[in-house]
Amino acid sequence: MTVRVDHDAWLVVIDPQVIFAAPESEWASPFFDEAFVNIRALAERFGERVIVTRWLPTADRSTSWGEYFAAWPFADKPADDHLYDLVPEAVGLSALPTVDLPTFGKWAEALTDITGPAPHLFVTGVSTDCCVLCTVLPAADAGAWVTVVTDACAGSTAENQAAALHVMGLYPPQISLATTAEIVGATS
User: Which residues does UniProt assign to the signal peptide (predicted)?
Assistant: First the structure.
């Protein structure tokens, strides 16, 4: 596969937070550390064109989010709780402020204000089967070109990772799948 990284492409790092990385967290991905090695290599490749997002629990509890937090009481904490901090390795990954949203998907005005409405995004992060998937599909639907960096994403389980990548792989040419090595070695 030939991968091209245009000078105006963006690397989006979805939710590299303690809640998804700390082994004691109920939402920790067992693949987070492995994926983060690749995220770091990609961030070096993209330089100033890196965006980091955070999921924050500020959604209205009178909606279905109330039941969600009832099902996951460990996560029902204020947005400034340590669980929602970036992992130390992600601090400074981007010179831009984090894009903080109370939704799984990060394709929203806060992101498009930075990238523009139809960018080429290289998407990484956690969890492949939740926040990555919920970002990638609406971005492609809105006209963005999206490359999911398969080995720089961390799923909740190996099976869920494979399923999410399979689903996202069903949407070419808007969505493509590539590895870190393919992107780091790509021409600009």
Answer: none
